[in-house]
Amino acid sequence: MIEVQNPILTVDHLTMRFGGLTAVDGVSFQAGAGDITAVIGPNGAGKTTMFNCLTGFYKATEGRLALQRNGTTHYLERMEGHLIAARAGVARTFQNIRLFANMSVLENLLVAQHNKLMKASGYSIAGLLGLPSFRKAEQEGIELARYWLDKVRLTDRADWEAGNLPYGDQRRLEIARAMCTDPCLLCLDEPAAGLNPRETAELNDLILSIRSDHQVGVLLIEHDMSVVMKISDHVIVLDYGQKIADGAPEEVRNDPAVIRAYLGEEEDDELPPEVAADLARDAEEHGGRAP
Amino acid sequence: MDAQLRPSVDEALPRVGREAALAGLITLALTATMVGLHTVPGEQSRLTLEFRFPEVIMAVVLVFFGRLGLSFTREGFGTYGLAIGIVIALGSLFFPGLASIVQILGVGAGAIVAINALWKIARPVRPDRPLPKSSAQMMDDVAAWVQRKSVPIGGAGIVFAIALPWLFPDRSSVDLATLVMTYIMLGWGLNIIVGLAGLLDLGYVAFYAVGAYSYGLLAQYFDFSFWLCLPLAGILAAFAGLILGFPVLRLRGDYFAIVTLGFGEIIRVVLQNWSTFTGGPDGIASIPRPSFFGIAEFTSAPEADGLPSFHTLFGLEFTPLHRLIFLYYLILVLALIVNAVSLRVRKLPLGRSWEALREDDVACQSLGINRRNIKLAAFTISAMFGGFAGSFFATRQGFISPESFTFIESAIVLAIVVLGGMGSQTGVVLAAILIIGLPELFRELEEYRMLIFGAAMVIIMVWRPRGLLAHREPTVRLHGRHGPKAPPKGGQAQEVAAE
């Protein structure tokens, strides 16, 4: 395992079993604060399962998930699902986009600030009375939403129903929504899936600016190597639930284990001696005749 | 349409005729037994079968000509359709010896055929014009319009509701209006759970029962007045909601619905069997009527229980209508409070999180929303409103028994919410009038009214599966109402994002 300078997340021997199937098998790694850490691997390698363990949708069978935030350590494997986002500050997006489709774009971003606004609304009592303190908090919420709308270029479409947005916009909106929860670690599950090259390039810029402007660590599952190799600081490769490589993008790219996992074994093994002898005899018997 | 493209009548006639004949045949098959066979008491108190030939023939003729008219209109011969529609209407009106129900049906059917034809004549399909909107699209536009104009429409509705006892100052009208208003209040209360939070609650009547029995029992055992019991009933029902909510809220979807159904029944069965406390199936009788805010009683005697009577206090002639009108205004105010609170909460973080929960509860958790708490809040608030309605029900009826809180009540309230369009406050009003008001108004039609009611429900569900006025306006806008236009409902923006 590569020791990271200033880890925000330390995953230690994470294992997730579903009955007899071990989807994630003793994976350990660290993700640096302010780094973009990519998790790659063939389909079914256990990447999304690992994300679900991290964000509380699955309870890990074994292992420790330690997250550092403002000097305190949160052990994610012991926390209730919603607290992982609310207290530990882990936000995520989904492989199949999960927006609130019938709500407007702006409302999607306001729901993401639920805990903050709920407190400001005095658990709805101050809100029902329409107290100025709540109005102010809501205005601030809208301003934050507007900031992110500007950032993902959706300000014009703020009042659209989220489900009516084009696909690429929905992907960006989901990232903006996750960022509105004010996270310290952003987990993106295949953010470039279904995007065209131009949108992918924009996505790269967005992720880089999130990292640089907001001091957020990014954990990224991605199949699109143009994203992974260009923006990530650190790449982790999973195959059959196990970590097979861990390092800088260039190292991983040339790692024989990674190439084998993606492209399969090269057929350069020697044939067993008996088979080789058989083949040679065959060739002699049929020598000279047309095959 | 171009003259060459349009088929001639000779071409269309066989096709149209075949369709109409087929529809007639199907009607014959359907009505031959269901309408045609009629059991009558014969000799020695035995039932004998009688065949009602004229009714079957009438049904077949009506369907045949109706289909003929509609098909002609569809093929572009609006005038033929119009003529057939008028013939059906006049024929059923003046044909000798028809029952009144057949006349009503015939005139109605003829009118539908004629109006359909007129519509087609008024707006012929031409390539240079936009295609005519489908009826579903038109209804979507209506729903959006109602939502946008909700303030004037709601204001007009409230003014009408306030003026209603003066417009129709008779016992049956005020009673009916009170009944409808009770269901509107229940519908608005349930709308919080079902419409906003998206949790299918089949046991809402439980909270209605808790509210009613809270008042009934508190009045019986402790002699509490209605005005003290009203908030208490709400609190007790909210408490019931909280207690029932805890075990139920871990469940989702169908499982949730089944368990709420079970809880609704549990409450009723407890009320029925705990006879030493609740009076069992006999219920609680002579529940006190509400006073006029504790300063006057609605009695014919000038004074009762140390309070002056309402008519002497205001120098009016005594009439029992005073109390009925007072009860009507009471439920109106209660219902409007429910409406105001739910409209307001919808725009608060709590209400938004309910709607988010309805849309996608997994995403809710990923945003740090405590799903259990917001579900409990929805359950509790909704239960409280149900409790208010229940205590009103108890004081209006003066008698309650477990019979009044069967599953069918939950089903009716749920039908009001679903029919009106999930989450639409105006839709609930419309649906309550349709479901409660119309069957009461058409009591003269006797057994046919439930038949027509059932048919109307089926038609609405086929025609508008999302409810009559299902349209959602955002709770907050960045650009105001006149900002960049959003695409129509359901229409994915066609442009490519990389413009």
Keywords, please?
heterodimer; A: 291 residues; six-stranded mixed β-sheet; 12 helices; B: mainly alpha; two-stranded antiparallel sheet; 3% strand; disordered C terminus
CA(first)-CA(last) distance of chain B:
39 Å
Give the N-to-C terminal Cα separation of chain A.
55 Å
In the sheet with the most strands of chain B, the strands line up as: 1-2
Count interface residues per chain for the largest interface: A-B, 60 and 43 residues
Main beta sheet of chain A? 6 strands, mixed
Would you write up a description of this structure?
- The complex is a heterodimer of chains A (291) and B (499).
- Chain A is an alpha/beta fold and 291 residues long.
- Chain A has helices at 47-54, 81-88, 105-111, 114-120, 125-129, 132-151, 167-179, 197-214, 225-231, 249-253, 256-263, 273-285; strands at residues 7-18, 21-32, 36-40, 62-69, 72-75, 90-92, 185-189, 217-221, 234-239, 242-247.
- Chain A has twelve helices and ten strands.
- In chain A, helix 8 links the parallel strand 7 (185-189) and strand 8.
- In chain A, helix 3 packs parallel to helix 7 and helix 8 packs parallel to helix 9 (225-231).
- Chain A is elongated and about 100 Å long.
- By secondary structure, chain B is mainly α.
- Helix content of chain B is 67%, strand content 3%.
- Chain B has a two-stranded antiparallel sheet with strand order 1-2.
- In chain B, helix 2 (53-74) packs antiparallel against helix 3.
- Chain B starts with 8 loop residues before the first helix and ends in a 36-residue tail after the last helix.
- Residues 489-499 of chain B have low confidence and may be disordered.
